[in-house]
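Need the bound structure for (2S)-2,3-dihydroxy-3-methylbutanoic acid, inputs here:
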Amino acid sequence: MERIALGVIGCGFFAQNHLHAWTDLRSKGVEIAAVCDVDESKARAAADKFGVKSWYKDAETMLKQEKLGLVDIVTRVETHRDVVSQAIRPRVPTIVQKPFGPDLAACRAMADEAQKAGVFLAVHENFRFQVPMRRIAELLRAGAIGTPSWARVSFRTGYDIYKGQPYLANEERFVLIDLGVHVLDLARVFLGEVEQLSAELQRRNPDVRGEDTATMLLRHKSGAVSIVECTYESRRLPDVFPETLLEIEGPKGAIVLKPGSVLDVTIAGKTTTHDVDAPVLNWAERPWHIIQESVVATCEHMLEALRAGRAADTAALDNVRTFTLVEAAYQAAAAGRAVRLA
Ligand code: NAD
Ligand code: 89V
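Answer from helper R.:
Posting the output first, comments after.
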């Protein structure tokens, strides 16, 4: 198996999970060859902690000096457009963290650039790779409940997200960009593409700049309807951060993902219950282990797709579809009416 030399760009809060994940994936033929952060102390610290030979302060220099087979960008959204271009220009296959871009135009521009250059570009959209989501996708593929006709996708927490990511409090477009991308992506994965969407946005925490709560109603092309909601301002107990709760109904039964990663599958009036909690990896910590395990699964999926010469499930073009829903939600909320998708 040919070894892939990886460069990680951005060594901040969330990149620690990527660095652990790629280290765990060494047996799959990937090696972190270099790390990069504009903050030298973070680049050095990541290189020391993960035993990486080279560290850089500048991504273009790293891309010139290293022979990289893959780049993983874990910087914040406002940098994605430039950093993705820096990686695509020398034709290095690239993964970029969610949110793909700050707006739909930037997402489309990055997807176009990669497509024209014929370069692999994928978005690290990890929610669909979580243990329960993988299980639910399998059940739906197997036709366990028939074609879904109704669903609720819900991420509601009051967890102090601002402690680890203080910059979120200052985002002008906040929860839809940060969390909406995840829950809307799940709605697409489970119920298919969307033809109409309406949304109500709220800023319930007076200390944050953007909307912290989004409640959306989607009509899917299949005729299914879903309620998709996310908030960082819930007072509900137990607070199940960072779990997404789900209900999906079809003609033959229902799938309900409950707090504690408990999955109830009801078929023909009989319910079976499954424990779908993620394994706690040796570097992971509760409650983040659900997300952390999904980072490993997402990175592994990217490697498999790259080696197979196919697009990732969350390729740039796929993620543009999810981002289209985010943009439609902002439009729908501003206009106070449903938006039809092309
Ligand atoms: P952060 O600010 O802690 O880290 C970003 C790092 O990138 C910083 O160290 C910064 O110095 C560095 N950086 C900025 N511009 C750079 C450049 N041009 N070249 C090299 N380094 C550069 O941010 P974070 O909280 O780690 O978030 C990073 C990304 O991860 C965001 O897009 C965020 O939405 C995403 N995230 C995803 C999940 C998830 O579950 N998928 C969870 C948390 C955060
Ligand atoms: O995706 C994110 O940015 C995180 C979450 C907690 C949802 O993983 O904030």
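Comments: The pocket of (2S)-2,3-dihydroxy-3-methylbutanoic acid (ligand 2) is lined by residues 161, 178-179, 182, 242, 291 (CB under 6 Å). The mean pLDDT is 98.
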